[in-house]
Amino acid sequence: MTPRNAVALAIALTFTTPSAAQTFTPLPQGVGFERSELTTLSADGRWAAGAVLSNGDLVRVDTTTNQVEILPGLNVYSAGARMTGISADGNFIVGGNGNTAFKYDYVLGGFSSVTATGFAIQVFPPVISDDASTVGFAQVTINPLLTSAVINHGQNASLLPVPNNTIFSRVGALSPDGSFAYGPIKIDDGQDQWLARWSVDLGTVELLAQIPGTSDDTEFLVSGVTPDGSTIVGETFGPDGFGFRFSPNTGLFTYDAPTAQRLRPRAVTDDGSTIVGTQRLAPNVFQAVIADETGFQPLMDMLLADFPSLADDLSGWTLTEAADISGDGLTIVGRGIDPTGAERGWYLTIPAPMTAPVLMISGLFAFRRHRH
């Protein structure tokens, strides 16, 4: 399928990777790809999206055919944006730069701003449901100064309900059909902020748990949720920030790491068994990580231990972020530093019959046995 808008005409590149049970595929080098990243993945792992950091163009990848497309024109709508969501069919991509947000329609071949409500002066990067029916985000308004959780259906936007005296709320994740939204709520009462779940259809909000250490102005981020809502992952900010996973059945679990080196979850598999993210080792120094229910380790360590056939492909690489993972755990996207020192997006595939539980047993369970 090709965009019909000539302005957004795709530049398609097809490249091959070695035939192997597992593949590690960087985005290509050369003109137009001086710096790149992949930051979001469709639920089935087929479609990935990211950006060319040097010029702001959007990148879409078909991981099953290794076709990479550059979709120009993003910098007109949101310069320096990060892609934060892609629909299940790969036809809709959303993102933002912290001030404005956009939606790209691949069928029509064009960008549009995400519709906010009222007199919004800032729109946070949005997320999109698998079926593309719903976009969720946060907007900032003045008079009064509030940050409000918003749901967008097409050109119609509406505020999500919040308790009285709420001064901050934000949608960070959506269910596949957009019927539920998840994110933080800060009530102006001096208490810790709440992890909330909204029923979009019913127009109700449920406060699931208070997240410790968030009583000041530092919000926390919800970055992923399983389709059934049984596992929610995210991180808190500030001097004592931490990565966490929450289950309505088992409560809150925080990942044990030095504060400056905490796990920063980015996504979770459908069964809640696997999380990917990044870890800050020092100022401007990061590594991609993979986690199970109780611990995490560098993604590079797991790959080299479990899949030695990838050693040559990974030689000289530093994987700095694992940004998203497919529902079955068989595809991961992220960014890293290649052997030449260039920042490049990449995707990792582990085809059937290897399954996510097998991957976790062979890699993370061994890691847990050796944790101190």
What tags apply to this protein structure?
single chain; 372 residues; mainly beta; Neuraminidase; five-stranded antiparallel beta sheet; 5 helices; 31 strands; globular; disordered N terminus; disordered C terminus
Radius of gyration: 20 Å
**Biggest β-sheet strands, sense, barrel:** 5 strands, antiparallel
The CATH topology of the largest domain corresponds to Neuraminidase
Task: Write out the strand line-up for the largest beta sheet, numbering strands in chain order.
Answer: 1-6-5-4-3
Helix content: under 10%
Intertermini distance: 51 Å
Looking at the overall shape, the CATH architecture of the largest domain is 6 Propeller
- How many domains in all? 3
The proportion of residues in beta strands is: 35-45%
Q: CATH first level of the largest domain: which class?
A: Mainly Beta
Bulk shape: globular
CATH superfamily of the largest domain: TolB, C-terminal domain
How many alpha or pi helices? 5
What does this structure look like?
The chain is mainly beta and 372 residues long. It folds into 3 domains: 1-13 and 32-112, no CATH class; 114-254, Neuraminidase, CATH 2.120.10.30; 257-372, no CATH class. Helix content is 8%, strand content 45%. It contains 5 helices and 31 strands. It has helices at 74-78, 299-306, 311-314, 356-362, 364-369; strands spanning 11-14, 23-26, 36-41, 47-52, 58-62, 67-71, 82-86, 92-96, 101-105, 110-113, 120-123, 127-128, 135-141, 146-153, 156-159, 166-169, 173-174, 180-187, 194-199, 204-210, 220-225, 232-236, 243-247, 251-254, 263-268, 275-282, 285-291, 296-298, 318-325, 331-337, 343-349. The strands form 7 sheets. The chain has a 5-stranded antiparallel beta sheet, with no helix packed on it. Strands 11, 12, 13, 14 and 15 form a 5-stranded antiparallel beta sheet that branches. Strands 16, 17, 18, 19 and 20 form a 5-stranded antiparallel beta sheet that branches. A hairpin with a 4-residue loop joins β9 and β10 (110-113). The longest helix has 8 residues, at 299-306. The radius of gyration is 20 Å and the shape is globular.
